[in-house]
């Protein structure tokens, strides 16, 4: 099948929109060519086609003449190409040819003789307008100055008083001394960086890269409605010399994100290069950060609206579950051509044309849209400072009302949200006020604007006191689901606030306000004080009132104690976590394991709960069922038969039910949202490994690998409590327990597996059922091609992995205690001089404590550091010992095979047996390990592709397995 010659068709049809003739046509092809589909708008038909594969589009184009036209539209092939791009993009003159090149079909396509096809009797206003946008030029677009304030030689105090956090300003002179002012032209960039690949901006989750010389070639021949433009946040890594060509202007140097390392902080700087007609559609910058943008060549047209005033043509969607905000908006060119002319003078945006050398400042929360009037080059950075810090923290907080309100104003609120909300006279006058009642039509699909007169009594104020009133007070802000649109994750957010607390003590008043918004820090601090008072511990000082660490539970360092309040995944999960941890500590004492010298010492444990409006505390050592309020009804069926009713076996049953129901949601059972388990441990002085990694010597790292091998060997050889057969999970109904193609009861009958191992196999088989969707949800950097193949790679039945254990006595136990989270923030280090490190054993008889508990005030300067403790056993479980090796190698060792070898030399336990079947993947330790990585509850696979970037081009999971875990196949374990 040959495509229509679109270039010729466009040239023959192109003319200004105002002169489109209403010409008669001999016949209307639409009826016969589309059948019942003719009733759908052309826009809808084109949108539907984007969900088909290129092969299906080719087949569909053969159906009829009109479908042939739709299927050969360039914008359709643009979408198809960018959705399916699987390697570095090479533009081949048209998007259809580029797509076929991606599919390795271009050569075959070019062998087919071209034949021009012309069809009369069909006209589409939608396609015509799109074609017009593809070929229009902006030569005659107004270059007026606009109505944004223009300033030169603006002082820092003037900027702070008049503009920061208040309104945009266009500033000249800030880039006059930059080398980029002269060197950032298309010609010089092409000469210096033509072979380097940069990231492109486009409406797809795929990461699209193109060499700069190919991109320049594309810009010279393209006729796209919304041209691709370079929007690369990694340009400093791709071309480090570019960072030397500019510097952050003095007005914007306060940036609270600079306490984070380059790998920790969210994307914040971008190189922006685009042709005429390209640009950024309407948006509010991520996390309500502020931004500056300096233009080096070309001209840009800016339009801006204050916070809460949604531009005409833009629709805001807010997810009620996690607060994620999505925006549907026309391209910047389409908005200026189709929507801007509809605006009355009083409803038009603030505008300006930015010229080379000028810098525009965009305050927090402001809507803005940018259109390149000429080919342009620019650099931009987002930042957090004292003016927008609280807004950034507010935007991170779980919930949806406040996130929609910050962007869509009063239109985001329902009737109930407006109750008792009046003009807030306490708001400072220098904050932006915006009454958005000009256009009351629905622009929120999730929330309809209220239709009562309450709107007339409410004025939207972009003020933190006003906006924070719409936080969802019923949510546990520390443990609720984190919005996928947040610029950093929950753990990174906690780590960021803690680093600010330590490194910027003069800002602690402001940091505390932000922590109260994002983490409910004030509430947790009140609960902390109750725990301290009940146990006669010192009360927290002002310096100790912020949680430390990046874990999922509030952890505090108070004097010589570490206090952890368990909230992760809700009360039931927290209860089993504490019960199992206490059971484990008791077991260590019973067997006198050497591991007990390298874990925390428990000082107290119990529950904090609300009763009759006041906090109460009761102790609990894990034995028996705690006597809490009348709403507490979580009592295991066999609680009279075991000492630890919330210990490991009931925890495993709880975890299995979560997997079986595909429900890993957080949240407490009804009636139990006011109960919080807690544990207090002795604090040890020292540093967590995460804070020392960059300063450690190679010998320190080898000693760490040896230490981890020894302690995990001690952990994995511990006995675990006897399994109560009367409460086996396998006693459930047969129809509820599928295992591969059979059933668990069948497996139990045909094998001699222990009940414990049967339970584990069953859980793994359940986890694999939705693995493709989980990997897809995690997305980049996991290659889509491998996600498509994961079903072929993962075994149909995990029983096959464990057949070897029954007849091979050389293999290690397939089911042991596992820490589950031996990562760089759960390893405690202490300073030592060279002599003591070489001469002492790793045994440390001195009092220890939990060290989420990192002593931040200590100095990191030391001759050497040695590991002393493994901390945070709240994720303790039973499983295959390889589950502990995975985070050690990926997170602690960062994939260094030398450290893995050192670890194995001290670990000395075999992983797979010597009698494993030859040429069987089930006998490869690497295969088992890779499968467990894929099934891991955390995104271990994403971490692997972040570490081994070359594997993003891998063609198979076997290639990834060999690269990451291949060394395990040469390891057999060592006899004592």
Automatic annotation (TrEMBL):
Residues 34-80 form the F-box domain. Residues 1-21 are annotated as: Disordered. Residues 237-400 form the JmjC domain. One of its GO terms (cellular component) is cytoplasm. Keywords: Iron, Metal-binding, Nucleus, Oxidoreductase. InterPro entries: Cupin_8 (IPR041667), F-box-like_dom_sf (IPR036047), F-box_dom (IPR001810), JmjC_dom (IPR003347), JMJD6_ArgDemeth/LysHydrox (IPR050910), Kinase-like_dom_sf (IPR011009). It is found in: Nucleus. Pfam families: Cupin_8, F-box-like. GO terms for molecular function: metal ion binding; oxidoreductase activity. Its cofactor is Fe(2+). Coiled coil: none annotated. Belongs to the JARID1 histone demethylase family. This is Lysine-specific demethylase JMJ21-like isoform X1.
């Amino acid at each position: 099948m040959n495509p229509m010659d679109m270039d010729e068709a466009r040239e023959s049809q192109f003319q200004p929109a105002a002169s489109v003739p209403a010409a008669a046509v001999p016949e209307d092809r639409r009826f016969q060519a589309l059948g019942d589909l003719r009733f759908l708008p052309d826009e809808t038909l084109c949108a539907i086609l984007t969900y088909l594969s290129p092969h299906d589009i080719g087949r569909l184009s053969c159906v009829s003449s009109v479908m042939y036209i739709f299927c050969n539209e360039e914008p359709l092939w643009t979408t198809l190409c960018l959705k399916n791009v699987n390697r570095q993009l090479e533009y081949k003159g048209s998007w259809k040819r580029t797509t076929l090149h991606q599919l390795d079909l271009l050569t075959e396509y070019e062998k087919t003789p071209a034949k021009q096809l012309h069809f009369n009797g069909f006209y589409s206003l939608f396609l015509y307008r799109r074609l017009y946008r593809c070929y229009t030029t902006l030569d005659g677009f107004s270059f007026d100055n606009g109505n944004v304030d223009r300033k030169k030689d603006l002082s820092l105090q003037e900027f702070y008083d008049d503009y920061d956090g208040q309104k945009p300003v266009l500033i000249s002179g800030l880039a006059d001394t930059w080398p980029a002012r002269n060197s950032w032209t298309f010609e010089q960039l092409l000469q210096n960086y033509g072979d380097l690949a940069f990231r492109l901006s486009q409406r797809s989750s795929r990461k699209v890269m193109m060499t700069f010389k190919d991109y320049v070639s594309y810009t010279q021949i393209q006729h796209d409605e919304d041209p691709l433009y370079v929007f690369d946040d990694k340009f400093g890594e791709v071309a480090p010399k570019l960072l030397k060509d500019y510097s952050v202007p003095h007005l914007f140097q306060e940036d609270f994100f600079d306490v984070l390392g380059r790998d920790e902080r969210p994307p914040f700087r971008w190189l922006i290069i685009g042709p005429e007609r390209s640009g950024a559609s309407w948006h509010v910058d991520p996390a309500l950060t502020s931004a500056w943008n300096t233009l080096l060549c070309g001209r840009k047209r800016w339009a801006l609206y204050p916070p809460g005033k949604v531009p005409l043509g833009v629709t805001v969607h807010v997810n009620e579950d996690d607060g994620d905000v999505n925006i549907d908006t026309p391209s910047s060119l389409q908005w200026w051509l189709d929507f801007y002319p509809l605006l009355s003078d009083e409803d038009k945006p603030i505008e300006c044309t930015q010229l080379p050398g000028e810098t525009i400042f965009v305050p927090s929360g402001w809507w803005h849209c940018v259109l390149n009037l000429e080919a342009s080059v620019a650099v931009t950075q987002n930042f957090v400072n004292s003016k927008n810090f609280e807004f950034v923290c507010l935007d991170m907080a779980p919930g949806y009302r406040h996130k929609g309100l910050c962007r869509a104003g009063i239109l985001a609120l329902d009737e109930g949200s407006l109750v008792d909300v009046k003009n807030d006279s306490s708001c400072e006058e220098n904050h932006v006020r915006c009454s958005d009642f000009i256009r009351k039509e629905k622009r929120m699909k999730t929330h309809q604007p209220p239709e009562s007169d309450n709107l007339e009594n409410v004025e939207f104020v972009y003020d933190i006191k006003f906006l924070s009133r719409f936080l969802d007070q019923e949510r546990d802000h520390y443990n609720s689901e984190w919005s996928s649109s947040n610029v950093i994750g929950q753990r990174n957010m906690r780590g960021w606030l803690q680093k600010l607390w330590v490194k910027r003590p003069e800002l602690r008043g402001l940091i505390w306000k932000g922590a109260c918004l994002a983490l409910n820090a004030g509430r947790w601090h009140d609960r902390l004080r109750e725990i301290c008072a009940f146990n006669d511990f010192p009360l927290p000082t002002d310096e100790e009132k912020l949680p430390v660490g990046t874990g999922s539970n509030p952890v505090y360092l108070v004097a010589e104690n570490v206090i952890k309040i368990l909230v992760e995944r809700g009360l039931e999960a927290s209860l089993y976590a504490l019960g199992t941890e206490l059971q484990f500590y008791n077991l260590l004492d019973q067997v006198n394991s050497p591991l007990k010298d390298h874990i925390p010492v428990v000082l107290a444990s119990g529950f904090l709960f609300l009763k009759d409006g006041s906090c109460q505390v009761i102790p609990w050592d894990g034995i028996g069922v705690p006597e809490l309020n009348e709403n507490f009804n979580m009592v295991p069926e066999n609680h009279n038969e075991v000492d630890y009713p919330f210990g490991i076996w009931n925890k495993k049953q709880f975890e299995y039910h979560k997997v079986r129901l595909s429900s890993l949601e957080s949240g407490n059972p009804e009636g139990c949202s006011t109960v919080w388990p807690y544990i207090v441990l002795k604090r040890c002085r020292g540093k967590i490994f995460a804070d020392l990694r960059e300063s450690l010597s190679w010998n320190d790292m080898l000693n760490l690998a040896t230490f981890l091998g020894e302690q995990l060997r001690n952990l994995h050889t511990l006995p675990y409590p006897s399994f109560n057969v009367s409460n086996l999970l396998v006693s459930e109904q047969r129809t509820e327990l599928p295992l591969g193609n059979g059933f668990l009861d069948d497996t139990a009958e045909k094998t001699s597996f222990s009940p414990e191992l049967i339970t584990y196999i069953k859980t793994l088989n359940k986890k694999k059922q939705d693995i493709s969707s989980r990997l897809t949800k995690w997305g980049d950097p996991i290659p889509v091609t491998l996600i498509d193949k994961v079903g072929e790679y993962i075994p149909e039945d995990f029983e096959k992995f464990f057949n070897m254990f029954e007849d091979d006595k050389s293999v290690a136990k397939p089911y042991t205690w596992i820490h589950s989270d031996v990562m760089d923030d759960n390893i405690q280090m202490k300073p030592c001089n060279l002599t003591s490190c070489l001469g002492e054993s790793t045994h440390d008889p001195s009092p220890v404590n939990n060290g989420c508990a990192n002593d931040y005030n200590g100095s990191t300067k030391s001759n050497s550091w040695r590991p002393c403790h493994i901390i945070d056993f709240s994720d303790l479980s039973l499983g295959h010992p390889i589950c502990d090796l995975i985070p050690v190698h990926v997170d602690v060792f960062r994939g260094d095979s030398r450290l893995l070898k050192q670890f194995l030399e001290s670990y000395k336990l075999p992983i797979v047996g010597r009698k494993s079947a030859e040429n069987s993947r089930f006998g490869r330790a690497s295969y088992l390990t890779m499968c467990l990585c894929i099934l891991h509850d955390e995104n271990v696979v994403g971490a692997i592709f972040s570490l081994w970037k070359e594997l993003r081009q891998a063609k198979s999971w076997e290639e990834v397995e060999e690269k990451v875990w291949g060394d395990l196949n040469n390891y057999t374990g060592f006899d004592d």
